[in-house]
Amino acid sequence: MKILVVGDGARENALAKSLSSHKVFALSSYINPGIKEVVDSTQGEYFLGEITPEEVRKIISRINPDMGVIGPEDPLFRGVSDEFRKEGIPVFGASKKNARIEESKVWARWLMWKYEIPGRLRYKAFSTMEEAAKFISEYGGSLAVKPAGQAGGKGVKVIADIQAYLSRDKRQAMAKSVNEIGSYYNKEGEPKIIVEEKVDGPEYTLHALSDGSTILPLPLAQDYKNAYQDGIGPETGGMGSISGPGFLLPFINQEEYDGTFDIVRKTVSAVEKETGESYTGAIAGQMILTGLWGPTVIEYYSRFGDPEASAIIPRIQDFGDLIERTATGHLSNAKLRVDERPSLVWAVSPLGYPLDRKLASGHKVSIDVPKIREIGCDVFFGSIALEENSLVTKGSRALELVCLGDFEESRRKLMKSLSFIESDVKLIYRNDIGSTILEQEEKAEIVRYTYTSRKKRGTLGVSADWSPNGGLW
């Protein structure tokens, strides 16, 4: 079988590796050394170019693939998966219409309220900065202010109304920042900013596969967004991830997993009703366990998260078979075999990421992959290109190191793995990934007590707050 994998990064490296029993072709904007390893070993072909529907159409015409696999979100938003479907070729990837569940945060919230999906938060959408600033200034509670659509995790601001004597100053500062937030999403005819009620609790992600009739939930994962040690610094695409043991995480129980899957399942059904198209590919709920609802939706992905994919895919036996069954509509007969051991992922980035991509670009890296594999870890290549037999950074997360097993033992192996990586620039990573389990278990117990009490009283999901003008939501 000939499979065309579309995308540049570590997530696509993990997907390609899972499909290595087939002949793998690839399209990306630079040569990813990990994807190239799979392409070469399966005697496929590597195509360089901009990932557009037009470019994909040309490659489909040239190689006539049996299946397509789309990794990143932007090609889904641009309708790349639809090019395969026009030619009658099975593809793993949401259609352009269905990918709107990720592309538009406003549409996703509207959908949840229309179909009364649990875990929904109150929100307001704004097309002008003035309206958003006015709302922020007048509202009396804590808020999360975000770009109204997908912006790669950029621009999210939170105002917690804890210190009342600072409230006015904080609101004025937040109101002034809406211009920056609104600049990250500027799609014609759509809102620029979304304001949501702020909630707190441990975060996690549930990915599921959907073939249009069957939905298969996968093991939970959690990514670590902040750039620097101990969860400080700007948000990134993710500096590391954990998954397991088993299907759960240490701080999420089976009932919460089931409730989360119910949310994802109802969301897929709602999307299909609105678009009239079957949902084929991956969907994920990025969740937070709160005292308001229990499992609560932060946002949705219409694809695999990254680095969550690097934590999940290596734990699943014959994952490539699940991809094929999803694309071809045969997921109902799938057997999901999961390695019970947890996984730990550390992202490695060049100095400058995420604030100065220019500073983080153009640096040479050398890595002894066989040595890393020898000690029981693996490497997925991300924002790093093979150029004239050298590995050169592209400005984002260059590598993702993955290890399965006890978190403490995996941490030791990952530290050893770092000794096999050299660069002409300082490399940034977080070695605290997976070390905050106890803290998150304690936080989960607090919110668990709150939401179970609400459930008994019949007030699950009911919010109450005060504002001087009233009725702001």
TrEMBL record:
GO terms for molecular function: ATP binding; metal ion binding; phosphoribosylamine-glycine ligase activity. Its EC number is 6.3.4.13. Belongs to the GARS family. It comes from the Archaea. Coiled coil: none annotated. Gene3D superfamilies: 3.40.50.20, ATP-grasp fold, A domain (3.30.1490.20), ATP-grasp fold, B domain (3.30.470.20), Phosphoribosylglycinamide synthetase, C-terminal domain (3.90.600.10). PROSITE patterns: ATP_GRASP (PS50975). Pfam families: GARS_A (PF01071), GARS_C (PF02843), GARS_N (PF02844). It comes from Sulfuracidifex tepidarius. Signal peptide: none annotated. Pathway: Purine metabolism; IMP biosynthesis via de novo pathway; N(1)-(5-phospho-D-ribosyl)glycinamide from 5-phospho-alpha-D-ribose 1-diphosphate: step 2/2. Keywords: ATP-binding, Ligase, Nucleotide-binding, Purine biosynthesis. InterPro entries: ATP-grasp (IPR011761), ATP_grasp_subdomain_1 (IPR013815), PreATP-grasp_dom_sf (IPR016185), PRibGlycinamid_synth_ATP-grasp (IPR020561), PRibGlycinamide_synth (IPR000115), PRibGlycinamide_synth_C-dom (IPR020560), PRibGlycinamide_synth_C_sf (IPR037123), PRibGlycinamide_synth_N (IPR020562). One of its GO terms (biological process) is 'de novo' IMP biosynthetic process. This is phosphoribosylamine--glycine ligase. Residues 109-328 form the ATP-grasp domain. NCBIfam families: purD.
